[in-house]
Structure prediction request, 152 residues.
Amino acid sequence: MRNFAVNLRTLLLALVLAIAVWISAVTAADPDEVHAPITVPVEVIGMDNSLVMTNEVPETIEVTLRAPQSVWEQLTAQEKSVRAFLDLSGLGAGEHMVEIKVQVAVRPTQTVLANPTTATVILEPFATEALPLNLSLSGQPATGYRAADPVT
Prediction:
């Protein structure tokens, strides 16, 4: 039984060392890189049709990503591989602080920095009202001109 315990410890140590060597080899073959910030347009999704946004939200954000070298090649090859959006689902009228979410289509990636990370959104009920339109002409046309029948 004692011999089994010694072998079990050796087996576990060998397993840990093997995993460490494997991680080191994978990282050396395809190292992680952090590139300059990418400018990404911000999309607004999930807004209730009965509400209207009355303030300006950021049109773009800057995102800095960390990814292996092979993933960067895929990120630059694909259009819209990085997406930023404001999800307004379930929000009612009023002022809300909403997180700008970043979604990357290619894995593995890590978002190092996003600027800005939140946006203030003011939502108000959408209202319509029908108003009467009355055409009112005043004055006379200049000499040499004549007024035609008005059209609305």
In short: The chain has a mean pLDDT of 87. The chain has two helices and eight strands. The helical segments are 2-29, 69-77. Strands lie at 32-34, 38-45, 51-53, 60-68, 82-87, 94-104, 110-115, 118-125.
